[in-house]
Inverse folding.
């Protein structure tokens, strides 16, 4: 291979893809170009009304391939929402989960129960969902309920169990070419920052724990947060926008995660 061709390849490879972190990985990682984002788990968008977003989180099962492709064509990075730590009785694969994996009711969410993330029998079931996420063409994964160790699950899950499962989950996503975010389990940020590509928190501004994501900020990885203002929305948003840390990208949603979206001015 000639010197000119080698030099040309080195130059081309030195440029990161749009929305990609600067260090080289084989999966998508959001960077500071991802400013306008949303999560829609109800009212999935129709092809003719797709929202213009840098990043959009959509339900794995409810989102057809055509929607993923259409969003990507308009420049949107598309992330699949998967509940990996709790069983949901309405999912098409719900019957595949053995009863021994299913624990206590997830309080506040009808039809959901915690899963035993210590049991390796859970992993093939989650891998099948990751396969579907990859096969539908999603760019990344938003894995919910990976903080069972902080909750009453019916299982003796400790932080070591959780870290082992979360690291396995990140490797499983990456092996399929999918980026993956750390969802809420930010008390483990210092241990897991090298394994995950961004962090997504809920209510960290209101509850005052956004600082737990500092390891991700120091590593140059994106930090996202969802707040759920329930009363006097305008006042609540104004107050939280003033309180939020500078590097936290906050959106305001209703708890059903419909198309309603508010952002800081």
């Amino acid at each position: 291979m000639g010197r000119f061709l080698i030099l040309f390849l080195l130059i081309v490879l030195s440029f990161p893809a749009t929305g990609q972190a600067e260090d080289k990985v084989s999966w998508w990682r959001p960077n500071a170009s991802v400013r306008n984002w949303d999560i829609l788990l109800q009212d999935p968008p129709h092809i003719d009304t797709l929202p213009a977003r840098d990043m959009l989180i959509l339900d794995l099962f409810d989102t057809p391939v055509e929607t993923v492709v259409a969003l990507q064509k308009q420049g949107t990075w598309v992330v699949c929402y998967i509940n990996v730590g709790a069983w949901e009785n309405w999912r098409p694969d719900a019957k595949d989960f053995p009863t021994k994996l299913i624990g206590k009711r997830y309080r506040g969410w009808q039809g959901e129960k915690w899963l035993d993330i210590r049991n390796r029998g859970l992993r093939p079931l989650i891998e099948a969902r990751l396969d579907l996420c990859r096969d539908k063409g999603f760019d990344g994964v938003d894995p919910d309920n990976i903080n069972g160790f902080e909750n009453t699950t019916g299982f003796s899950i400790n932080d070591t169990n959780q870290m082992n499962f979360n690291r396995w989950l990140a490797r499983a996503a990456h092996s399929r070419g999918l980026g993956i975010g750390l969802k809420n389990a930010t008390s483990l940020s210092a241990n897991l920052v090298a394994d995950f590509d961004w962090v997504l928190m809920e209510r960290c501004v209101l509850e005052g724990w956004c600082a737990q994501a500092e390891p991700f900020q120091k590593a140059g990885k994106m930090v996202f947060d969802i707040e759920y203002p329930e009363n006097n929305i305008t006042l609540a948003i104004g107050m939280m926008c003033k309180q939020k840390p500078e590097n936290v990208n906050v959106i305001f949603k209703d708890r059903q995660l419909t198309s309603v979206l508010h952002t800081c001015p």
Q: What stands out?
A: The two ends are 53 Å apart (CA to CA). The longest strand covers residues 77-83. The CA atoms of residues 82 and 143 lie 5 Å apart.
